């Protein structure tokens, strides 16, 4: 005999959320299986197969708990009673911003997620309305000053602003902040004291403050008519220019490394590490995360005490 419509509610009550499109039951010899055939969101066809017949019924699903019902009225009563209408049926859902990708018709409720999708999947920069040939080209574009210049990274000591975290740390490492007695060596001491596990600082058995080099007139090379660095063989038009080069990070010990173990690049300054992370070249951290977390490294109270 053809199954009675009442059997639907019994099936729906016992099997709230079928994990597949076809389920088998052994509850009764008369009912061998049911199939859920998608029709539209939250509404499906319930196909009841017995030994002698096949019957098709409408099948309504709760928006929240996925419980099935044999009529639209029944599922509405259930959702009214338990407040299961779900977020998609609230005023907040309909008033929320939404963004549709014109290339693949995917929808996003978050603007940044939308732009990330366009860049990663379609090599497209939405704010600039530009397509790029490959991922490398668009990554270079997104890492350029057009997108990376925030302009609101403030020095915690003198309130001078920098475009990026790299600019701020470079400002401190070269001793340019009038309100903080910091330079490359003192900043390294402060960071090292807060990094006992060597996440970003190299684990050096011994470390001494950077030495000061002073070149003399004997570094003048008559063949090139310039003052020459004997290590890098770079020429300088003045003795002061050579001395500035000798005391730059180029001639100093590498104190930092990338925190990504798969990368391991080493750097002489903290600004160089931060610049590496901002570039996202090794994928360890996103640019925005670097800008957000730089304040934890440069806490004025801890820095001054150290």
From TrEMBL:
Keywords: Metal-binding, Repeat, Zinc, Zinc-finger. It comes from the Eukaryota. Residues 60-89, 99-127 form the C2H2-type domain. Pfam families: zf-C2H2_2 (PF12756), zf-C2H2_jaz (PF12171). Signal peptide: none annotated. The keyword Protein biosynthesis does not apply. One of its GO terms (cellular component) is nucleus. The keyword Zinc applies. One of its GO terms (molecular function) is zinc ion binding. This is C2H2-type domain-containing protein. It comes from Colletotrichum melonis.
């Amino acid at each position: 005999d053809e199954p009675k419509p009442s059997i639907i509610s019994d099936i729906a009550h016992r099997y709230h959320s079928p994990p597949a499109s076809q389920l088998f039951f052994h509850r009764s010899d008369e009912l061998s299986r049911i199939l859920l055939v998608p029709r539209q969101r939250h509404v499906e066809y319930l196909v009841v197969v017995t030994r002698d017949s096949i019957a098709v019924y409408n099948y309504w699903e709760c928006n929240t708990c996925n419980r099935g019902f044999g009529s639209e009225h029944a599922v509405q009563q259930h959702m009214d009673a338990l407040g299961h209408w779900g977020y998609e049926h609230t005023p907040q859902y309909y008033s929320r911003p939404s963004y549709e990708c014109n290339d693949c018709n995917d929808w996003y409720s978050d603007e940044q997620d939308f732009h990330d999708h366009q860049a990663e999947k379609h090599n497209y920069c939405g704010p600039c309305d530009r397509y790029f040939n490959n991922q490398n080209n668009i990554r270079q574009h997104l890492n350029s000053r057009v997108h990376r210049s925030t302009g609101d990274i403030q020095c915690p000591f003198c309130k001078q602003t920098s475009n990026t975290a790299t600019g701020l740390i470079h400002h401190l490492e070269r001793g340019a902040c009038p309100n903080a007695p910091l330079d490359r060596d003192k900043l390294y001491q402060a960071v090292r004291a807060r990094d006992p596990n060597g996440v970003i600082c190299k684990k050096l058995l011994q470390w001494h403050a950077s030495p000061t080099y002073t070149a003399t007139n004997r570094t003048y090379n008559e063949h090139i008519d310039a003052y020459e660095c004997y290590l890098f063989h770079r020429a300088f038009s003045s003795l002061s220019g050579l001395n500035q080069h000798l005391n730059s990070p180029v001639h100093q010990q590498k104190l930092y490394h990338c925190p990504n173990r798969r990368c391991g690049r080493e750097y002489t300054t903290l600004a160089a590490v931060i610049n590496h992370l901002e570039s996202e070249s090794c994928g360890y951290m996103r640019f925005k995360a670097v800008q957000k977390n730089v304040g934890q490294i440069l806490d004025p109270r801890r820095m001054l005490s150290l």
